[in-house]
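Practice set, problem 2.
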Amino acid sequence: MTRAFRQALAALSLTVAAPAAADPPALSLPIDCTLGTSCYIEDYVDARPGEGQRDYTCGLKSRDGHRGTDIVLLSFEAMVQGVDVLAAAPGVVDATRDGMEDVAVSAETREAIRGRECGNAVRIDHGDGWKTLYCHLQKGSLQVQNGTRVEAGDVLARVGLSGLTNVPHVHLGVLKDGKIIDPFNPETSETCGTATGDGLWKDAPDYHRAGLFTAGFSGDVPDFDAVKSGRARIETARGYSNLVLYGHVFFAEAGDRLDFVINGPEGEVFRNDVTLEAPQAQLFRAMGRKAPEDGWPAGEYRGYVTLSREGHILAVRHADVEVMR
């Protein structure tokens, strides 16, 4: 367990009550959404010791040192509308935190949340050393307190943007005697490609190895090296600049679809899609619009790139750019 994660756990308020000894919890989805339709899994527990990352299948869907399962909403607008975070299994709430703002992390805010990377949170004790942790909850949305007994599916809070995150999602952490457990591969968190069955899940969510590394804005269609290095990305643009949105994809299959949407201060600016013709380990696509004759209105613009397969959403990435006149 990383030092930051230990600090995050220690910072939560605890109670002395705990349920009686129990078998490992059988987990249900900890969020009121439909995978592939209104949410998707972006990151899994990092199964690679040391530097680098691998998910439980030896795939790319994790981050170095990541200690949970991230279930992500498709947009910030969905968060504003409200999506419930649910108890994954029966137990007793033994830790909560509220009061942190729902603000995407930045270089300016990173130090202020140190030791509270989990954001607003709920922890549930399931007995016999098993606990689940729910991070990045919306400020003021908690429906439980220390000592509350919950059943699987009970509402804990709403999905938010608190703590160390820049996208609305719930981070589900599973612990046994304080050790991080991968619910997809509970026998070990240091190997990948060995998991069988549903793990700790009642019905394990399907795994898809394809995803999006990133999305970004550029002034023109970039070259692939600039996309991979990050040099293509712009954060500000002039009113008469082109607005090009790109998405960097991994493990695409023939027939996969990429949807591009750009919204600005006056509403939708651009929408288009492309169907991929061949499987590729990595690729990028870019789409956008030239500036209108009188230039873009000044303000914040947000783009979404969505990867889907046969109507099932596999990944979404967003990018922001500020247009200045």
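Problem 2, part (b): a different protein.
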Amino acid sequence: MLNRPSPYDCFTVADLLVDYADQVLPPDQTERVAAHLSQCPACQEQVAQLRELSIQMEVSEPVKPTPALRNQFMLMLEQEKAALAAAPVAAPEVQAEARVRPMWAGEATRWTMRIAAGVALLIMGMALGQWWRPIAAPDVATTPPAGATKHAIQLASALSGDASRSLSASDRIQLVSNAVEQVEGTGDPAVQVLINTLNFDPNANVRLAAASALYRLRSDPRVGEAFIQSLTIQTDPNVQILLIELLVNMRERRATPQLEQLAKKPDALPIVRQQAEYGLGTLI
């Protein structure tokens, strides 16, 4: 029976699937993706869809605009030109004064009003982007614990505060992955930094990487407890599913109450509830 790859395994090859489908990957990456596909039906289906889409794009003929569409566009263009030409022309002294007025004041033309509306929409979009932007956890979330090693301090500094915001998600994933090799046995403070990253990093892919890194350090007794607690606060389905798989692999029966709660959670995705039920059936 083949081992099912985790969501993090799928994430690590996701960017390569398009080139794999087009057969333009280097040999080493081709071998890596092929090995993953041999165990992952979901990614196999995605590659099949990519190849089918590529075939359809190759055989399809370019769509040309119809004469009616072109005529309609030219009519709208002429109407705009006529509207601009019909706008009253201010005297030179008024024009000089108008240059210091807000563009929405006085005798604004329809064209100017449209520009103003476009700017307003752009500002509104920027404001909404600020409103909905994922909020990073407080800096204290990744503060190294007392007695931290030099490596733990450097890791905590890189994954928190202004330093973290200056790094891309890919850079943080690389940091998390490299951290495993530098952990100096059970009890290393860097493990707590990884746990904080799992719980508080705003990017789900970084949290996936932190969970996978911690699984490699599962001999540390903090890891199992961290996975159980993290399952109660995670909202991304990929992270939830990965945590369930890791808890099952670790035979963490202490996670049973959290799995029962997640299996009955009405706003959880069906696949997450099914995974929680699977975990319960395996652990009980």
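Answer key, part (b): The CA atoms of residues 74 and 240 lie 54 Å apart. The two ends are 22 Å apart (CA to CA).
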